[in-house]
Each structure stands twice: as C-alpha cells, then as structure tokens.
C-alpha cells in the first residue's frame, strides 16, 4: 500500500489514526508494566488490604473476622490478576496445620517471656472477673483481624515484592523497620518500643515467613501472640486491653516494658532473636532466601 492511500484510510470515519492506536497501546502497555512491577502490585495490594483493615479491624462482634476474609480475597485478586503470580502462601491445603504450628510458637514465645519477667518480679497477676466468654471472644475476633490483615500487607505483599527487587535479607530488614515504625503512633509508644517491635516482631515474623512461606503460619504466630497478651491483661502494642487477668507491673521499664507493655521489654527481644536465627538457618537450607540482584558488569 502506498503512503498516500494509507493516509487516506487513516482519515476515514471509523478508522483511528495509526499514531493514536500505537500511542494508546503504548500507554496501556506501560500501565500494565507498572502494575506488574513489584512496587506497583505491592502498593495496590497494601492500599486494598489496608482499606479493608481500617474499616473492620476495630468493629463490633465478628466484623474483624469478616474483614480478614475480605482481605484474603483482595490479596488473592491483586496477586493473581494484577501481579500475575501464583499464591501458594495462602493455599487452603495445610492451612490449619500451619496456623496451629505458628500459633504454638507464638503462644510459647509470649508465655516464656512473661514467665521470665515474672520470675524477676516484674509482673504479678490476679483474676480480673471481666467475664470469660466475652473476653475470650473479643480477644479472638480482634487478634484474627489484626494478624491476618497485617501479615498479608507486611509479609505477603511488602516482603515478597521487596525480596524480588533486592533479595530476602534486604526485604526482612526493610519490612521489620516499617513494622516497628507502624507501631509508633500510640500515646505510650517511643523510639525504643518501635525498635523493639521491629526486632522482635518484624524480624521474627519475617524469618517465620521465609522459613515456612505460609501466611497461615505467620498469621497463627501473630494471632497467638496478640491473643495471649490480651487474655493475660497485658497491653497489646501499647493499647490497654480487658483480659481474663489483671497484670500488675513493678520494676524497671527495660524489664517490664512499662506502660507500653510486653513488647517494650528487653526479654522478648532477646528471646525473639533466639527464635529468629534458627528459622533463618532453616530457610537458607530449604532455599528460601532469595539473593539480591547484582548489577551487570559494565560493557
């Protein structure tokens, strides 16, 4: 076809100009590339899951659990439809086993930390008389909502996106720091409490995910951590709670965590490091640590 005839057909009604078609195609292509890039789908997913969490996390009754289920659906949609990735980390097969495994580690971690502090005279407990069923139900509902939505955002989305860019070691460090920073807003929070959470929660939960590659495992760990604290009457990340017991605090804040609660104590920081190291070793042996990208040599 000659140039003249081509120009004639491009100008006919119903036939878009070739330049416009190519421009639109390029624009759509660039948009898809941006959305499929790690930081693109991470941002979309965090906004989506975060919005669900913000609307449901502190709601009455079973609303936090409903929100957690909705957050899983949003996560699946973003990973499959936007990122174009498989989602074995939320596979239903083995989910209960992984959640119970993680829950056992989370509950054991908190109980051991509390026992050590109590042994040194930092904590003493008495029955609160708040009502068994209502307190347990509230603790379970709140912990389910917080654990699942936070793990989807930090370990499912942020960690997997960042390790695709810079490797697992950088990803665990960055997500740990952001996780600590996210807990800095409370009235009793401090720079130390934020750093402590980054070390004991950010690193521990990151190591747990790299080891098991299961959201259910880390959510189970996170759930048992929060629920056990609340039932013991210990503030959860600085927030006062109504538990089965009343925790009386006596001693230096470095031992007890002071008004912020257990997470600001040096005891769980040390115990969490002792747990994180073998998890990372096991993750390395299983090939679960992705290397960082190396720059190509200059040509």
What can be said about this structure in brief?
By secondary structure, the protein is mainly alpha-helical. It has a domain at 94-285. It contains eleven helices and two strands; from the N terminus they run H-H-H-H-H-E-H-H-H-H-E-H-H.
Report on the structure:
Helices cover 69% and strands 3% of the residues. With 299 residues, the protein is mainly alpha-helical. The chain has a domain at 94-285.
Strand content: under 5%
On the 0 to 100 scale, the average pLDDT is 90
Task: Say how many strands there are.
Answer: 2
Distance between the ends: 42 Å
Low-confidence stretches at least 5 residues in length (pLDDT < 50)?
Answer: 1-20, 295-299
**Helical residue percent band:** 55-70%
Q: Could you spell the SSE succession in H and E letters?
A: HHHHHEHHHHEHH
Structural class: mainly alpha
Q: For the largest sheet, list the strands in their spatial order.
A: 1-2
Our Rg estimate from Cα atoms comes to: 24 Å
Count, helices: 11
Largest sheet: 2 strands, antiparallel
Query: Quick one: overall form?
Result: globular
Task: Quickly list its features.
single chain; disordered C terminus; 299 residues; mainly alpha; disordered N terminus; two-stranded antiparallel ribbon
């Amino acid at each position: 076809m000659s140039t003249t005839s081509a120009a004639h057909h491009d100008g006919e009604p119903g036939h878009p100009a070739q330049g416009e078609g190519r421009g639109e195609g390029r624009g759509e292509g660039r948009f898809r590339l941006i959305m499929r890039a790690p930081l693109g789908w991470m941002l979309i997913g965090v906004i989506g899951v975060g919005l669900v969490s913000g609307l449901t996390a502190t709601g009455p009754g079973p609303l936090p659990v409903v929100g957690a289920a909705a957050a899983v659906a949003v996560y699946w949609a973003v990973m499959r439809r936007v990122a174009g990735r498989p989602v074995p980390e939320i596979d239903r097969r083995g989910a209960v086993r992984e959640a119970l495994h993680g829950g056992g580690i989370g509950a054991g971690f908190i109980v051991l930390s509390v026992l050590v502090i109590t042994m040194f005279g930092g904590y003493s407990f008495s029955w609160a008389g708040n009502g068994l069923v209502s307190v347990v139900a509230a603790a379970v509902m709140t912990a389910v909502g917080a654990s699942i939505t936070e793990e989807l955002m930090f370990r499912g989305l942020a960690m997997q996106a960042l390790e695709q860019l810079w490797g697992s070691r950088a990803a665990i460090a960055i997500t740990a720091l952001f996780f600590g920073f996210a807990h800095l807003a409370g009235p009793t929070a401090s720079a130390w409490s934020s750093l402590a959470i980054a070390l004991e929660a950010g690193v521990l939960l990151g190591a747990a995910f790299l080891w098991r590659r299961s959201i259910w495992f880390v959510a189970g760990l996170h759930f048992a951590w929060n629920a056990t604290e609340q039932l013991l009457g210990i503030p959860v990340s600085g927030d006062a709670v109504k538990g089965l017991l009343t925790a009386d605090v006596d001693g230096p804040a470095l031992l007890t965590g002071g008004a912020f609660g257990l997470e600001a104590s040096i005891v769980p920081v040390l115990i969490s490091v002792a747990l994180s190291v073998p998890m990372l070793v096991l993750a390395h042996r299983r090939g679960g640590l992705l290397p960082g990208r190396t720059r190509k040599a200059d040509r």
